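Notebook, p. 212. Picked up where the previous page left off. The plan for this session was modest: take the two constructs that came back from the sequencing core last week, fold each one, and keep the raw output in the notebook itself so nobody has to go hunting through shared drives later. Recording the first one now, exactly as returned: residue sequence, then the structure token string.
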Amino acid sequence: YAVISQREGNPAVDPELSDTHTAGIIIRPSGWPGVSLTADYYDIRIRDVIALSGTQNIINSCAAGNASACGLIERSDSGLITRVHNRILNIAGARSRGIDLELGWRTPLAWFGGAESLAARAFVTRTLESSTTDATGTRNDRAGQTGLFGGAPRLQATLSVAYERGPLNVGIQQRYVSSGSYDATFGAADLADRHVRAATYTTLRLAFSPRGGRGTTWYLNIQNLFEAAPPRSGDWGFGGSIPTNEGLFDVLGRRFVAGVRLDL
């Protein structure tokens, strides 16, 4: 039979609270000029997260003898449930932990007569935890989930290399997203093949500044240079079927952006 589930605000909720702990180190070796290494650890924990209890959770809690949960349920004269007040409360939590690494290097060159430079930068993020705790106290860690939206890849990396000579600047960037699971909560009984493959994308950037970066700059960017297809990880939403996780993977293919920038 039909039951009304009524979502409600609650003026008695308290602010969400969080604790953030970070630690980092920067290394610039004296024997390797132009080289720098940065390592950062972060741990963000949020408690008293504002969330809905959930209609079924309220009913289950009342059936288990929780009087406050029973107070959110309306019944007919015959005892049938007619309405459940699904009220927001401070009942959830979340935690995110990881390590960020950055390596930078820059050096002058004389390949084509001097006045040149080559720079490289690598940025790596290692996700250790990306968990949520729901109204029932169930904890789900979605670190390594790349199939459905809401997870975090175990490893993401970006490598950029740029060559500069006078007015010319040429750069190439490689972005990597590690393989992962379709849904971190799924087991073999839910889905036989839960693996989502890794993805790599390349971007090429060209820029020409006749006056050394002042005045006019002509540029051309080619994104997803090799037209890498996104991994298949289907989902469903209001717009219909979703073939992949659009928050992580490129769905547009190779594209060109050309233009001119004026510094007045």
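Okay, moving on. Second construct, recorded in the same format:
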Amino acid sequence: MIVESNVPLQPYNSFGIVARARTLVRVRGTADVHAVLAHAQLRDEPKFVLGGGSNIVLTGDAKAAVLKVEIAGRRV
């Protein structure tokens, strides 16, 4: 699990809307999901699941923790 702070979300939405994630977690497998749910600071925080970003319109910065799904060859 890779946790980053203050990450721009322009590359992750097809319209290139300017927005930032206060917390972005790169999820690369089921173990990462379990780690997020067990993480002391992340477990109780609201979460926003972001896949490829083609069906998303951002209206501002993400206040919830953004879980960026990066599991190759899988569709969710």
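Notes on construct two before I forget. The chain has a mean pLDDT of 90.
Flagging for discussion at group meeting.
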